[in-house]
């Protein structure tokens, strides 16, 4: 097994501030960036804070930024970097730092709670639901989400605009609205809940100008923009400009 010495700059600090610290660390064949962070903890910085769990790209815990790009530390191979370059590892930028590489991702849980849950179809019990396979396949892609929040961290609407966080749910939770809106058995409409309208009015769909940065960083390869956000926008607009829907809303207002 061959090894070499690589130079790293790792962000250390907390909510009061911090900065990059230089380290030189041994790298072995086949290692990922999380291995290097663990070696740093074992040899030079025992108090370095990092969040991780599965080391298999499935728990979504180890999200951080490597050379400024949002990535999973456990799925980023050291072999993608030039051996001579200095590699920077910094915490997710869109969320408040707790310590070192660990951020407070509570924003995402708040946004998750704001999306109304699936409404079961009236008159059907568990085990009686029937759906066409194509209706199962469509939202199935979105169920691959590991809640790493890389998309939430990358979207420019909140990345540098803290003030937008109140009104904008972010790609992951707009995708959840899209998933429920596509669900043929969701009975939300029968309770008066128009998911397309809430996407616009309550979850900030209009802030998304389909830059697709969220899709580019998704480690699960989910086509967030093309398969969730654009269809959701189309359906929301269709409903708004559908003459029958318009007439219905006028009659209801009388
Ligand atoms: Fe992560 Fe992709 Fe889920 Fe966003 S949609 S939280 S990038 S897995
Ligand atoms: Fe943001 Fe993705 Fe839309 S990056 S602007 S949510 S396409
Ligand atoms: Fe679980 Fe990286 S440690 S996704």
Total number of helical segments?
10
Side by side, the strands of the main sheet go 2-1-5-3-4
Total strands = 7
Q: Which of globular, elongated, flat, extended, rod-shaped describes the shape?
A: elongated
What is the typical, i.e. mean, pLDDT? 94
Q: For the CA atoms, what is the radius of gyration?
A: 22 Å
- Uncertain ranges: none
Instruction: Give the ligands present.
Output: iron/sulfur cluster, FE3-S4 cluster, FE2/S2 (inorganic) cluster
Largest sheet: 5 strands, mixed
**β-sheet strand percentage:** 15-25%
Q: Report how far the terminal alpha carbons are from each other.
A: 78 Å
In N-to-C order, the SSE pattern is EEHEEEEEHHHHHHHHH
Structural class: alpha+beta
Give the proportion of residues in helices: 25-40%
Tell me what you see in this structure.
With 254 residues, the chain is of the alpha+beta class. 35% of the residues lie in helices and 17% in strands. It is built from ten helices and seven strands. The chain has helices spanning 33-43, 106-114, 133-140, 150-154, 156-159, 171-182, 195-201, 213-217, 224-241, 243-253, and strands at residues 3-14, 17-28, 63-66, 69-72, 86-90, 97-99, 102-103. The strands form two sheets. Strands 2-1-5-3-4 form a five-stranded mixed beta sheet. Helix 6 (171-182) crosses helix 9 and helix 7 crosses helix 9 (224-241). It is elongated, with a radius of gyration of 22 Å. The structure holds iron/sulfur cluster, FE3-S4 cluster and FE2/S2 (inorganic) cluster. Iron/sulfur cluster (SF4) binds at residues 145-151, 172, 217-220, 222, 224. FE3-S4 cluster (F3S) is lined by residues 155, 157, 171, 208-214, 225, 229.
């Amino acid at each position: 097994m061959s090894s070499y010495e690589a130079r790293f700059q790792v962000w250390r600090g907390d909510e009061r501030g911090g900065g990059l610290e230089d380290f030189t660390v041994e790298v072995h064949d086949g290692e990922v960036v999380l291995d290097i962070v663990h070696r740093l903890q074992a040899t030079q910085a025992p108090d370095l804070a990092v969040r991780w769990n599965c080391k298999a790209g499935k728990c979504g815990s180890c999200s951080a930024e490597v050379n400024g790009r949002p990535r999973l530390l456990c799925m980023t191979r050291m072999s993608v970097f030039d051996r001579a370059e200095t590699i920077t590892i910094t915490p997710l930028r869109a969320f408040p730092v707790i310590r070192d590489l660990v951020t407070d991702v509570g924003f995402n849980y708040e946004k998750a709670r704001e999306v109304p849950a699936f409404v079961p179809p009236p008159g059907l019990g568990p085990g009686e639901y029937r759906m066409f396979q194509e209706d199962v396949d469509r939202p199935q892609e979105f169920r691959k989400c590991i809640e790493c929040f890389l998309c939430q961290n990358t979207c420019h609407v909140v990345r540098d605009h803290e003030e937008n966080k109140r009104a904008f749910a972010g790609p992951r939770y707009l995708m959840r609205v899209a998933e429920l809106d596509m669900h043929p058995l969701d009975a939300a409409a029968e309770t008066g809940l128009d998911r397309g309208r809430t996407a616009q009015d309550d979850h900030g769909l209009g802030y998304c100008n389909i830059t697709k940065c969220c899709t580019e960083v998704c480690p699960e390869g989910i086509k967030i923009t093309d398969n969730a956000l654009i269809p959701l926008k189309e359906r929301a607009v269709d409903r708004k400009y559908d003459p029958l829907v318009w007439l219905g809303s006028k009659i209801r207002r009388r």
